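Customer escalation, tier 2.

The customer says the design service returned an amino acid string that "doesn't look like it belongs to this structure." They asked us to rerun it and document both sides in this ticket. The original structure tokens are below, unchanged.
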């Protein structure tokens, strides 16, 4: 079967939108968000109690700004491409808030609908990450941190990703206890654990499907900017 041509720049757009939409569906299902966004989600839940304007999207790029600074300090180096990851985080945060608003109008008041929302959300998140794998434009700081740290110290990127996910999940649990007390989990629930167990497999399946149907090529001559 002849593959269709898909631009790497469009893959970036699709990645941002689909990942944000998937996160919005998982948040609405209330079975627990993914381990990657759990700390930001807990920050959003707590701060929004005092500052109603503080959104999930704002929590995302605020936390990613801190993570970016931490990464620069750990690596002891700065690249021109690093700030673009924060730009991606801001764009993602804005799109996430918009998608959460849209999804909030959809009915999700039964256990069946919540399960459907959760499954749809997890699949969409996996598709979004798969699109990010096929673009040269800087990803969110989450992915950049794993990529740069593993490259700097010679770690396996898969092992580094696993450690990062576990640490992120642990931070989410600690924040849940600190913000809302012991025995009252917010954000990190059984859905978070399930996502951690099958997320890698789902991303792999989505990636194989995309690569079997599309040939990803650059349309703009700007790749060099993001490789500096």
């Amino acid at each position: 079967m002849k593959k269709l041509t898909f631009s790497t720049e469009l893959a970036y757009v699709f990645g941002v939108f689909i990942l944000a939409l998937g996160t919005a569906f998982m948040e609405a299902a209330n079975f627990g968000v993914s381990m990657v966004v759990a700390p930001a989600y807990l920050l959003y839940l707590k701060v929004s109690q005092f500052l109603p304007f503080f959104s999930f999207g704002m929590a995302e790029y605020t936390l990613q700004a801190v993570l970016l600074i931490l990464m620069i300090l750990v690596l002891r180096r700065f690249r021109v491409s690093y700030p673009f990851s924060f730009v991606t985080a801001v764009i993602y945060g804005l799109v996430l808030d918009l998608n959460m608003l849209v999804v909030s109008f959809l009915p999700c008041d039964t256990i069946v609908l919540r399960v459907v929302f959760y499954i749809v959300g997890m699949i969409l998140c996996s598709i979004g990450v798969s699109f990010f794998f096929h673009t040269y434009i800087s990803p969110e700081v989450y992915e950049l941190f794993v990529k740069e740290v593993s490259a700097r110290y010679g770690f396996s990127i898969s092992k580094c990703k696993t450690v990062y996910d576990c640490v992120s999940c642990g931070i989410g649990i600690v924040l849940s206890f600190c913000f809302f007390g012991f025995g009252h989990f917010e954000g990190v629930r059984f859905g978070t654990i399930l996502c951690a167990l099958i997320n890698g497999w789902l991303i792999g399946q989505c990636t194989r499907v995309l690569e079997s149907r599309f040939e990803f090529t650059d349309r703009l001559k700007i790749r060099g900017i993001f490789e500096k």
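Tier 2 assessment: The sequence is consistent with the input. The chain has one domain: 4-215. Strands lie at 4-7, 214-217. Sent an explanation to the customer and offered a walkthrough call.
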